[in-house]
């Protein structure tokens, strides 16, 4: 499997694969590259609908040049817990951030959310976040305010009375419910417009259709979140290896 950075020719093949509707895994197979490499390449350069090989190549060259001008990280940085590969974790965090951004979240908010989600404790202080992300406390504060308004994080005080920002299992449920409430507000506003514009006018009819559609989406989202909430607290079942469950007769003899 080839290593190193993607070549311009490989990026052109990625662009052609995306245009043909191929999955990342298939593009990766054709290039003999890890699927994560293709995913990261596409998501950091516009996503599957906006990826362009020439722009992606120039952007990568620019990032490489900028990294060469940046001082190396402190070699005393502690190793990753659980024997994780630090570079693999860093690259995955970048992919996670880019995918969240593709869903519409601003970059700094996505970076903070990714940082919290990939932390074993699920909680960090403002100082922790500023240090890990190499950004100002003001940037962290603004990002947290946004994430909190969307139900993605919550605040708590630790034993030292420091404010910590937490992302836990229930936060995802709360975020879905916040989304449902936000959609419901759009429904209410659209129906107000029907009264203003007239239900028998083209504009009024359009708003009524919007309201009906989003009303269904809002109710479905809330109902699905309620029904699936238990999943957040259910431990995945561990299956026994096949060699431990096969080769045994009904009377227990091998």
From TrEMBL:
Signal peptide: none
Basic and acidic residues bias spans: 71-87
Entries under SUPFAM superfamilies matching the protein: Winged helix' DNA-binding domain
Domain HTH marR-type: 117-159
Family matches, as InterPro entries: HTH_MarR-typ, IS30-like_HTH, Transposase-Integrase, WH-like_DNA-bd_sf, WH_DNA-bd_sf
Domain of life of the source: Bacteria
UniProt protein name: Helix-turn-helix domain-containing protein
Native source organism of the sequence: Streptomyces erythrogriseus
């Amino acid at each position: 499997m080839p290593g190193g950075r993607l070549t311009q020719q490989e990026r052109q093949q990625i662009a052609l694969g995306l245009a043909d509707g191929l999955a990342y895994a298939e593009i990766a197979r054709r290039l003999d590259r890890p699927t994560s490499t293709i995913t990261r390449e596409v998501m950091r350069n516009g996503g599957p609908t906006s990826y362009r090989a020439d722009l992606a190549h120039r952007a990568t060259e620019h990032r490489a040049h900028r990294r060469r001008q940046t001082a190396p990280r402190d070699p005393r940085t502690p190793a990753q817990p659980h024997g994780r590969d630090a570079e693999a974790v860093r690259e995955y965090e970048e992919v996670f951030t880019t995918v969240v951004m593709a869903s519409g979240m601003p970059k700094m908010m996505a970076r903070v959310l990714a940082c919290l989600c990939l932390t074993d404790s699920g909680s960090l202080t403002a100082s922790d976040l500023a240090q890990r992300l190499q950004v100002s406390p003001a940037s962290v504060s603004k990002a947290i305010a946004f994430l909190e308004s969307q139900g993605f994080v919550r605040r708590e005080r630790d034993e030292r009375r420091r404010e910590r920002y937490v992302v836990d299992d229930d936060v995802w449920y709360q975020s879905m419910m916040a989304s449902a409430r936000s959609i419901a507000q759009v429904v209410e506003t659209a129906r107000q417009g029907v009264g203003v514009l007239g239900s028998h006018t083209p504009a009024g009819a359009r708003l009524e259709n919007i309201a009906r559609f989003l009303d269904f989406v809002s109710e479905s989202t809330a109902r699905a979140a309620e029904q699936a909430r238990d999943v957040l607290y259910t431990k995945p079942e561990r299956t026994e290896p096949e060699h431990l469950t096969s080769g045994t007769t009904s009377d227990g003899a091998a």
